[in-house]
């Protein structure tokens, strides 16, 4: 008996399903272990990633708490050595450098310039230290060593920071301008002091000193702010 079109379509579908099922069984018998292993590895990797993320968060939180403890001890003009050692050993580049900056500042506050400079040098030489920490260390080291450095050494050390737009332009520019004065380069000093006095991003204390020095050297004084209009 001939099959109706509907029966023919149904039979084809059943045969097709059987072939697909047979192919799947054949594929699974050959590669089932590999697929299962890959799935387990993928799940394991994802679980490991989650654990690592949790570990990183926990470590970051612990480092933050330890750094807070270090700052608390620094407020009493002392260094919590065990906490400092932990941050240097396991705090990562950020907390390590911050801890070293605290140590150097404490040493400088006790007039131990040798210890402070050595710590700043360690930050500058550390390839893993972040650039902002390196720049801060360079500025503070130069300020501490200014009297013992040749003026041209100061200018060379700070040339990358004593430029408008740099976060350290105020401090680096002021030290550089004073170095120019020691070198007898009054025109360069006056120009730099004037630039510092006119730069809105420079801290007010430095702007005030720079404006006074610029005026004393004959440079143009910064423009006075326009008076507020009465309403």
TrEMBL record:
Compartment(s) where it occurs, according to its Swiss-Prot or TrEMBL record: Cell membrane; Membrane
GO molecular function terms attached to this record: protein-containing complex binding
Cell cycle in keyword set: no
TM annotation in the entry: 34-52
Classification lineage: Bacteria, Pseudomonadati, Pseudomonadota, Alphaproteobacteria, Sphingomonadales
UniProt-recorded name of the protein: Tetratricopeptide repeat protein
One GO term describing the cellular component: plasma membrane
Protein keywords: Cell membrane, Chaperone, Membrane, Transmembrane, Transmembrane helix
Start and end residues of each Ancillary SecYEG translocon subunit/Cell division coordinator CpoB TPR domain: 26-190
Topology relative to the membrane: Single-pass membrane protein
Pfam families linked: TPR_21 (PF09976)
């Amino acid at each position: 008996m001939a099959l109706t079109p509907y029966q023919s379509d149904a039979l084809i579908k059943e045969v097709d399903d059987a072939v697909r099922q047979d192919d799947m069984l054949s594929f699974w018998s050959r590669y089932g272990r590999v697929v299962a292993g890959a799935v387990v590895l993928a799940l394991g990797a994802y679980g490991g990633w989650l654990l690592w993320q949790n570990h990183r968060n926990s470590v970051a939180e612990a480092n933050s708490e330890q750094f807070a403890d270090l700052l608390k001890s620094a407020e009493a003009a002392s260094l919590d050595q065990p906490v400092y050692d932990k941050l240097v050993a396991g705090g990562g580049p950020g907390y390590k450098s911050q801890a070293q900056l605290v140590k150097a500042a404490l040493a400088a506050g006790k007039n131990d310039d040798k210890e402070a400079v050595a710590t700043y040098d360690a930050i500058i030489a550390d390839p893993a230290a972040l650039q902002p920490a390196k720049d801060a260390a360079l500025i503070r080291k130069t300020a501490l060593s200014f009297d013992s450095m040749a003026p041209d050494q100061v200018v060379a050390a700070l040339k990358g920071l004593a430029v408008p737009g740099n976060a350290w332009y105020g401090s680096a520019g002021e030290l550089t301008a004073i170095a120019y004065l020691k070198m007898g380069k009054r025109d360069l000093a006056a120009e730099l002091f004037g630039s510092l006095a006119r730069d809105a991003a420079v801290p007010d204390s430095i702007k005030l000193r720079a404006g006074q020095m610029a005026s004393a050297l004959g440079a143009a004084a910064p423009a006075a702010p326009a008076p507020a209009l009465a309403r």
